[in-house]
Amino acid sequence: MNSLIFAVAVLLLGIDAINDLAQASVRVRVSDSSWWWDTNGNGGNQLPDMLVAYYRHHGVHSLMLVVCHTEKKDIAETMLWQQFTLNNFYVQVHTACSLKDLQHVTAPGPDELKVSPPPSTFRPDNTTHWEISFVLPATPYKMGILLLDFTSPCALNLLRWSTAPEHNYLTTNRFWLLLTTNMNDIDSLEDPEIFIPPDSELRILWHQNFTATLIDLYKVGPDKPLKRRHIGINLRTTKHLRHALQKFGSAITYRQNLEGMVFNTAIVIAFPDVFTNIEDLSLRHIDTISKVNHRLMAELANRLNMSYNTYQTVNYGWRQPNGSFDGLMGRFQRYELDFAQLAIFMRLDRIAICDFVAETFRVRAGIMFRQPPLSAVSNIFALPFQEDVWISILVLLILTTVVLIVELIFSPHTHDMGYMDTLNFVWGAMCQQGFYVEVRNRSARVIVFTTFVAALFLFTSFSANIVALLQSPSDAIRSLADLGQSPLEIGVQDTQYNKIYFTESTDPVTKSLYHKKIAAKGDHVYMRPLLGMERMRKGLFAYQVELQAGYQIVSDTFSEPEKCGLMELEPFQLPMLAIPTRKNFPYKELFRRQLRWQREVSLVNREERKWIPQRPKCESGNSAFVSIGITECRYALLIFGYGAAASFGFFLCEIIAKHFYGLYRIFYGYREVQP
To answer: InterPro entries of this UniProt entry (predicted)?
Structure first.
């Protein structure tokens, strides 16, 4: 019996020992992870709440939880996943095993392949560098990445992979948060292969003894030391964290000193034969785009404490038949440049090989012309009177002729004129000519007098209107369709984009104009602005030109009366100009904010007024006297020609009629002589 009691006692003591050992083991695990969650309610559960508050402050709703050592962080992973899920976060979990699994990494399809992929700088060696399945597609939405135990080889490899130039996953819309309990772990980020750019949002959360410290990290350049800035110290609650984040504001405002970094850039000089200096205001119309953007980029370098290694090209860059680009875009395609010192057109084919930072100016290209004289497009001899006036004049002619014929028939006096002479009298009176017959009776003289007086008023009004119409411009060309039907020839500024945008246009009117008046004329329609604007000034000529360049030439070479009547039509809308950068450029957001700041403080507006000429105003208000040419007199000459031809025809008929009988007798006698 005693032995049985002893055995039971030993068994109970063994069970108690096992329970104590199990509790001790749990306490050890909880102690190892007490900075995650305190089961005694002593405040350790503040960390998950802080993480939720941190990502909510940044507007993040999608989260990637990366746990490289699950054997140590299994409790943390479960608790964090539950905490974020309960707070309506979409959470994806990556472990060391899932990162090494490359079977489910799908290669991009043919439509997703880049025109020119960036050169690969990540070199796998299967020891410290190995390929992983961590792929972050480009997205406009915000995303959070939470990395546990970032000093492990798995986590450091992930950071090297993500910061490689061909990936550049550290952008402004990806909020990286690295957790640690040892402040010395930050030194591992001094690795030169882990480039934390100024555009990044990477923070360290150091948590220990129920307090947390949030640290902002970045590097000016890949070979620059790591820079640290404390956002909040001794944070105990989510309220403390939110207050620290609000006080800190935007991280990029603390990163505006690039410490003299040198970037490879390029500028386009399209007309090197006439280009003098980038600051030459006397030739504003030569390479205006480069000049107007130069001061903005110089101010950008001054604000960010950086400098440029500038290359010069003569072409903005357009796609070639083999798929490559020439000029400036060709350098971007070969990754020879970091960004350009000027803005270029934002086009879909260029977006594939570069990114656009911020818009600067808008360039307008249009067909400039002077409205042709009214005499060139209309019969000015029919314009002085309206239709009802012409009908009244015709009625007057008929009525005068009829009255004069009645007077001749019933008059008791004899006249030396026939009935056909009345037509000569009426027509001569309307043309202010005299009459060759003397009229003796008073009734006929009254008819002659009233006819001449009425004709005098009509002739005076007609002549005055003719003088005004000869010097008046027309409004016949109001659209591209009118221009296509007009007698004006068309020239085009010799730039590549004019040739491209005309051929790419889908507007039927623009296409018709191009094929009818540009493509059909050959390459000689492409000319320099000075030549094209001079031809436009002298004759019936329209010129497709950058309106800013055209305005400058008009201001310099046109007289005040010649500025009146200038018209412009835009056959196509040019896209906005924007500063291009290479793909995955790690300073893109920093540049964007600086350029937009220049617009907000009117620096962009100042440069636009300085370098881009405005449309010249017509100060005189009317056109000057112009001499009369063949064009203006063509209808008068046409009437004269028709009259001469008719007269000659009647002359031949009279000769034939006069000698018809003699010819008939000769011809008839010749037939009688025949046997």
So the answer is: Insect_Ionotropic_Sensory_Rcpt (IPR052192), Iontro_rcpt_C (IPR001320)
| 358/495 same-domain check | no
Band (24; pLDDT cuts 50, 70, 90): very low
Q: Same structural domain for residues 205 and 221? A: yes
Q: Do 523 and 646 lie in a common domain?
A: no
- Average pLDDT estimate for 161-180: 91
The single residue listed with the structure tokens 């504003």 is 284
Cα gap 144→495, rounded to integer Å: 47
Task: State the total domains in the chain.
Answer: 5
Number of other CB atoms surrounding residue 377 within 10 Å: 20
Query: Span 356-379, mean pLDDT?
Result: 83
Output the 3-class SS for 345-389. Answer: ECCHHHHCCCEEEEECCCCCEEEEEECCEHHHHCCHHHCCCCHHH
Answer whether residue 166 shows pLDDT above 70: yes
Does 550 lie in the same domain as 451? no
**Per-residue pLDDT reduced to its tens digit, 319-328:** 888 888 999 9
Torsions phi, psi of 151, nearest 5?
Answer: -90, -5
Residue-level length of the chain: 675
Does the residue 29 lie in any domain?
A: no
User: 300: domain range?
Assistant: 256-363+575-613
CB-neighbour burial class of residue 401 (10 A; exposed 0-12, middle 13-18, buried 19+)? middle
- Which residue among 440, 455, 471 closes a domain? 471
Same-domain check for residues 283 and 342: yes
Q: Is 177 exposed, middle or buried (0-12, 13-18, 19+ CB in 10 A)?
A: buried
Helix spans in 130-229 (H): 153-163
Domain end, chosen from 202, 222, 255, is at 255
Kind and range of the H or E element at 95?
A: strand 90-95
Residue 37, pLDDT above cutoff 80 = no
Residues 524 and 457 in one domain: no
Same domain, 555 and 637: no
pLDDT digit string, tens, across residues 262-287:
999 999 998 888 888 888 888 888 88
List of E strands, 104-164: 143-148
Q: Is the pLDDT of residue 459 over 90?
A: no
